[in-house]
């Protein structure tokens, strides 16, 4: 069996996590990839949410990456503009904590969410009343 050296950085790191031994040039590439990812600087942005929710449970990003939906223990879903960090919508109505939220892949502003009581809600961000 012929061993083909991996050239994809993500696969190299994934292989390392699985305990795969890299050989020769692949080992050198693995060390370079690890060093590069270890020292990458990530800058966070603080987001101010209404009602001071106790904790954030889940995050989902819109397909165009401009909005972020977050679910919280206070049973609300907050829609935040990624660029500004500003909360632009508060989706209120679940009786229990939403455990899932997703943006429609092709219809902008359409969101589905579900909570522990079995309720699924469809939200249209273009409708002003929630």
Low-confidence stretches: none
The shape, in one word, is: elongated
Give me the side-by-side strand order of the main sheet.
1-2-3-4
Output the helix-strand order.
HHEEEEEEE
Rg for CA atoms: 21 Å
Strand fraction equals 25-35%
Query: Residue-averaged pLDDT, rounded?
Result: 80
Q: How much helical structure, as a percent, in the residues?
A: 10-25%
Structural class by SSE content? alpha+beta
C-alpha termini separation: 60 Å
Main beta-sheet annotation? 4 strands, antiparallel
Overall strand count: 7
Supply the number of helical segments: 2
InterPro entries: AMBRA1_autophagy, WD40/YVTN_repeat-like_dom_sf, WD40_repeat_CS, WD40_repeat_dom_sf, WD40_rpt
Pfam family, one: WD40
Keywords: Repeat, WD repeat
WD repeats: 91-130
From the structure above, extract its key features.
7 strands; single chain; 30% strand; 130 residues; alpha+beta; WD40/YVTN_repeat-like_dom_sf; WD40_repeat_dom_sf; 2 helices; four-stranded antiparallel sheet
């Amino acid at each position: 069996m012929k061993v083909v050296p991996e050239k994809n950085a993500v696969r190299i790191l994934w292989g390392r996590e699985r305990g795969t031994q890299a050989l020769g040039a692949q080992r050198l590439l693995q060390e370079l990839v690890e060093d590069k990812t270890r020292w990458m600087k990530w800058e966070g942005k603080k987001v101010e949410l209404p009602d001071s929710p106790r904790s954030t449970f889940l995050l989902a990003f819109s397909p165009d990456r401009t909005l972020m939906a977050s679910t919280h223990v206070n049973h609300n879903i907050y829609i935040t503009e990624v660029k500004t960090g500003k909360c632009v919508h508060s989706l209120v109505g679940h009786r229990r904590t939403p455990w899932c939220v997703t943006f429609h892949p092709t219809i902008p502003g359409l969101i589905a969410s579900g909570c522990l009581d079995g309720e699924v809600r469809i939200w249209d961000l273009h409708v002003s009343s929630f």
